[in-house]
Write a structure and sequence with these properties.
seven-stranded mixed beta sheet; homodimer; globular; alpha/beta; Metallo-beta-lactamase, Chain A; 9 helices; about 20% helix
Chain lengths: ~300, ~300
């Protein structure tokens, strides 16, 4: 007995199509030529009855409506027991506002991320007598849902964009950006939707895992700039690219991992187009390109 | 030359289906037996090129993806020029977080509502050099998009749920809950998605309008309580019901209005089911039940 995972949303912030984007992928998604993808979220369960959601995306309402396993089982009964957020980015916390309907669950995050959320009065919509906010220490395993243990650990990253000051540390290690280790029935998975670099320590941590979901934001570090859609590199945004000698595909190549799945793809990433050579290259390197609704069991 | 309106979302907060709701309407919507509806928002234009959105719902990404008239016209060009919010409720402001992608537009609201938004650091995602926040005085007309004038006016209502204290004034008149009058080419429309009572002054204001969109949250004041889904009346939530001697259908009956459209329907409202006797009753009284994607021109 292990656990089940379901990708609720495979895209990065903005989704595919992104509301204001006329790039090739967004135009093809609007035309129905490639599959639309909602924003970054993963659902997990060990027993099939009690679910946790890792990251609450702005698209959570449509994501849940498309997921029969998470549909209400009574007038106000749902299988959702816990929500965990891995950073304070809008694509990972805005969906909490949708979960406001007087429904009890536990909200797990580091103390640092809880502070970011609590600084906003609007999140009082999650009433304290309904939603218990649990501060989780780094490296301390806890049972997120029955039969499934979770452990948070720091990964190189940065504060949310809306909190950036004049100087931004893009590879900070601390409570602002974390990954999640999941353990059940002797199987191990990792969920790391945002990561600026695969450090040696991080590589050693994931080595031997049965399943890894990893940051697939960009194909190349300067993708947004070359397309004329932004002024920032992936590194500046706190994300390592997939391709190139410094990329995640190269970094993971020597590691023994059961299955490797890219998630959190930006709308500009060519791998979102099933016909692209980049998609073929990533798949040839042993990666699965995550898709909305995909269920992957380690 | 008048103007065009498009209902982006016809449902109240939570939408249809609501994520945690197993009521009859939500079950039927999940099964595809009745149409799903997204949350409260109206798009308006006078020239067909420059659009304003009245209320930014959490569903705005899927709403815009379903609306060709608002699709990007270039890599980062969109026809959206302005967003106006009529209160600080989550179903009306959370979508602002989705509009964060470095896109210029004007954000119109009363000073009181701007204060509610600005108290949340997360809305700094709308960068001040991109999104100009314009405080609009009550009763002062302004050009919201070329050729279309808008005027805000107070309607009986309350502060957002997440700001409620121990004592709540549910029919307060001020800057926290407003309606919008729209004027173009000699035609007049009103948009009032939340309203606790049709006062004499409000009735006199809308008298003779070509088009009115009005608060259709509940069919009966005790609807949530009777269904076992809540402890609050419509009145307590700041919404007048459709039916009964105190309801909006009765209140509007003596008024001369070109077209009357209910919007902001809660998922429990029986009019959302096209086969319901309540729907027939509302339509017999001259009301249109708003639906996602419906375009209505005064």
């Amino acid at each position: 007995m292990g656990f089940r995972t379901r990708i609720l949303g495979a895209a990065a912030g903005g989704g595919l199509p992104q509301w204001n984007c006329g790039c090739g992928n967004c135009r093809r998604a609007r035309a129905g030529a490639i599959a639309a993808q909602t924003q970054s979220s993963l659902a997990v369960t060990a027993n099939g009855r009690d679910w946790a959601i890792l990251n609450a995306s702005p698209d959570i309402r449509v994501q849940l409506a498309a997921c029969p396993a998470l549909a209400p089982t009574g007038p106000r009964e749902v299988p959702l027991r816990a929500v965990l957020v891995t950073n304070g980015d809008i694509d990972h916390v805005a969906g909490l506002l949708t979960l406001r309907e007087m429904q009890p669950f536990k909200l797990y995050a580091t103390a640092g991320i809880h502070e970011v959320i609590a600084a906003n009065p609007i999140f009082a919509a999650l009433k304290s007598d309904m939603v218990r906010r649990e501060a989780v220490a780094l490296e301390a395993a806890f049972e997120i849902v029955p039969g499934l243990r979770a452990t948070l650990f720091p990964v190189p990253g940065k504060v949310p964009l809306y909190l950036e000051g004049e100087v931004v540390e893009t590879r900070a290690m601390g409570e602002q950006t974390v990954g999640v280790r999941l353990d059940a029935g002797g199987l191990t998975a990792f969920y790391v939707p945002g990561c600026a670099a695969l450090t040696g320590a991080l590589a050693a941590r994931v080595e031997g895992a049965d399943l890894v979901f990893f940051d697939g934001t960009l194909w190349t570090d300067d993708e947004m700039i070359r397309l004329g859609l932004g002024r920032k590199t992936g590194g500046r945004m706190g994300h390592m690219a997939m391709s190139g000698p410094e990329g995640s595909i190269a970094a993971f190549a020597p590691l023994r991992i059961g299955r490797k799945v890219f998630v959190h793809m930006n709308n500009t990433n060519p791998v979102l187009d099933p016909g692209s050579p980049e998609r073929a290259e990533a798949e040839a390197a042993g990666w699965i390109i995550g898709q909305d609704g995909m269920e992957i069991t380690p």
